[in-house]
Amino acid sequence: MSALIAAGALAGWAGRHLLGRLRRGAAVPPGWCEAGVSLAWALVALRQPPGWWLPIPLALGWLAVVLSACDLRVHRLPDALTLPAYPVAVALLSVVAAHRPGVALGSAAGLVLLGGTYLVARVISPPSMGAGDVKLAGVLGAVVGAVSVPAVAGVVAAGAAFTLVGALWRRAGAVAHGPAVLVPSWLVTLSWP
């Protein structure tokens, strides 16, 4: 477990530096990503998922911490992180599909449900949903759908509830929605199998 915590700190450090170098990234204070990824990976280690599932909560934990830090700092989810998440998710879920039948269908359904819900929200009311949130939603839907298609609805509801709480707390200005959907999505992957 200590090796995974140390690897998490290193991965968080790399994520923080990557964010600082991206054209549309953010300067994140030292320690944010390092501590966040270490904690996420420690929780994964405690859960002890099978080897074929392990990369999913590790990768999503890293992405959740790094994107949340960026969204909280500058209210942006950079394409340089959200778009490459699609082929990474496909590769990792392909391994999972070899061990669990139905994963591919669940992933496709989750992608359509979460991605479609966010796209509709963006089309109906552009100020209510950022373009980065829409781009991220598909990949999160695919990963959550691999676990459980009904869990996608739970992630949508949790994301909306957390964003509402954030809006009521802030009372003015933009609210970062990324963390509100990333954390519940990661928790779903942590809880399975």
Automatic annotation (TrEMBL):
Residue intervals passing through the bilayer: 51-69, 81-98, 104-124, 136-169
GO cellular component, one term: plasma membrane
Residue ranges of every copy of the Prepilin type IV endopeptidase peptidase domain listed in the record: 59-153
UniProt keyword annotations, A-Z: Membrane, Transmembrane, Transmembrane helix
One GO MF term: aspartic-type endopeptidase activity
Gene Ontology annotations of biological process type: signal peptide processing
Signal peptide positions (record): none
InterPro entries from the UniProt entry: Prepilin_IV_endopep_pep (IPR000045), Prepilin_peptidase/N-MTase (IPR050882)
Family: Belongs to the peptidase A24 family.
Matches recorded under PANTHER family: PREPILIN LEADER PEPTIDASE_N-METHYLTRANSFERASE-RELATED (PTHR30487:SF0), TYPE 4 PREPILIN-LIKE PROTEINS LEADER PEPTIDE-PROCESSING ENZYME (PTHR30487)
Protein name: Prepilin peptidase
Organism, as annotated: Saccharopolyspora terrae
Classification of source organism: Bacteria, Bacillati, Actinomycetota, Actinomycetes, Pseudonocardiales
